[in-house]
Every structure is written in C-alpha cells, then in structure tokens.
Amino acid sequence: MKTIMVKCLALVLCLGIISNVAEAQAKKKKPVHKTRTVKKRTTAKRTTNSKTKADINPSAKVDTAVVIAPPKIDSLPITFVKPSLRPDDAIERNLVKDRTPLPYEYLREDDAVYREKVWREIDTREKMNLPFRYSANEDNGNQRFISILFKAIQDGPDNGGVTVFNPSDDRFTTPMTVAEVAKMVAGEPVSVPMYDSLGNVTGYKQTTPEVNLDSFYKFEIKEEVIFDKESSRLFWRILGIAPLKNVITSQGINLGEAPLFWVYYPDMRPIFAKYEVYNGKNYGARMSWEELFESRMFYGRIIKSTLNNPFDEMLSQQQGLKQNRILQLLEGENIQNKIFDYEQNLWSY
To answer: Who's near 209: CB < 8 A, 6+ residues apart?
Structure first.
C-alpha cells in the first residue's frame, strides 16, 4: 500500500514539472513574435508613404497632349451597298452576270492606211453624258461611273480588277498602288484637334478629308482612229480612260484640271460589260457600259490630236488658242471633220 502511494506522488510531481517547463517556453516565445510583427508593420508603412509621395509629387509635369498617327490609306472612297436578300426584279436576270465582250476584229498593220490618235474630254454635266452620273445603288454596287472605276482599282488584277497607271505618262508605263491612288484622290491628311469636356486641347488626330464622288464630273479618254483598207471601214479604238480633278495648292491657287490616273480600256471591257447604263426612256432596254463606248453613245470634245501637231501640245497650249476656249472648241470640231472627210473622200459615186 505504501509503495502505491509513493508511485502516485512521484507521478504527480513529474506532471507538475512538465507543465511548468511548457509555460516557461511559451512565455519566452511571445516577445519574439511581437517584435517580428512590429518590424513588418513599420516596413509596410514606409513603403506606403514612399508610394504616396511619388504619386502626389507636385513638381512632376505630365504632358496630356497626344498626337495620333494617321491611318494607313489603302482604300478608295467606295460606297458600301448591302446586297438585296430577295429578288429585286420581277424577272430573273442572269444575262448581266454572264455577259462578256466580243473580241476586237484583228487589224493588220499593212491594211491600216490611216491612223491618228485623239484625246477627248467628256463633261458629264452635258445632257448626253448624264448616265455617267447615275447614282443609284444596285447589288453590284453604286452605279456612278467613277465608282465603277474605283471598285475595279480596289479589287486589283488578282481579284478581277485592273492595274492603274501614273497620270504623268499616258502611255501606261508606271503602275500605281491602291494607297497612291487613294492619296491622290483624297489628298494629304489633315490634323484635327481633339478637346475634352472643358474645352482643352488634349491631342491631335490626323484624318483624310471626305471625298464627294459627284465632284468627278469630267473624264479624259485616249483613242486611236484607224482606216482599214481591207474592210474599207474607219475604226475607233479607245485606249485609256482618266478622271479629271481640279488641282488646288495649299495657298489656294487653282492649277487647273489634271488626270488622277490612267486605266487601260481593254482591261476594263470585261468589267464594263457587267454594268448597265441608265436609260430614262426604257428601263428594260439598257445597254452595258462596254456597248456604250463601242457604239460611241457619248459626246467628248477633242482637246488634243496628233494631226498637224509637231510639238505634241494640247489645243489649250497651242499658239493662238491659249486664251480663247471658243477657238479651242472650233479647232476640235475641225479635227473631227477632217477625219470624217478623209473616209468620205475615199468613196466615189
């Protein structure tokens, strides 16, 4: 019995010693934990203060004026036309899509006994040339003549379009890119200021001016007239078409009309065959643009010819015709009559 009592007392003493040691170790760990947390808080405070001071520094100057770079000009001003989701005609029309121009009749060089090159100016404000300004929208796009040219240039030769040539030479020697044509059509980019809600200038944006398609109302065509002795016929073959535009300098000086670009007409024939010309008398009897040019259903006054022109000058540059537009018009009609009389004088009655 005494042995049991001694063992119990020894066990109680051991448990008390163990608990005292555990309490002492816990008391030693607490201050170390406190110092560490205090150090972390002080470092956090310092970093926050330094950030705030850097953000609210009154001496730092921030430039808010931003200049936005000009957009890349690689598209022409073509009116986007939504296609019709239902047939817009009471009859099914497939002839326009499948229409192709007839190939030209072959002309031998030995049979061409008479050849002259003629340059004409087509003014679409005249009554006979009003179809050039027909501005309706159809499934194949806007029907203005200038829109047809722009769309053919935008598509490019790889997608059923055409190659455009520099206006400095009407012999089709220097091809142009779409970006170059767009720059000549719209002009140089203009800097436009941008304002905030308080009316302060926040930056500048470079944009291109808007283009009015109705401002292209004059076109120049280059053609060659050939008399073929084998068929005893006079052939008119159009070589190129160029839209004209007034050239105005930055000082406001009008330099007159100049071609924007040249398009080779034989390349445009398959495209012209798929566009119809407006007919105000009968909507169902409309011809294609290719038929209009081949039938010569337009009027253009002669502004240059290789006939009696050793210095290769326009009629407006020739001596005695510079300042008189009436004489220029009469000289153009005189050239037309000389070509007509040549054919008529070959016949004997």
So the answer is: 186, 187, 190
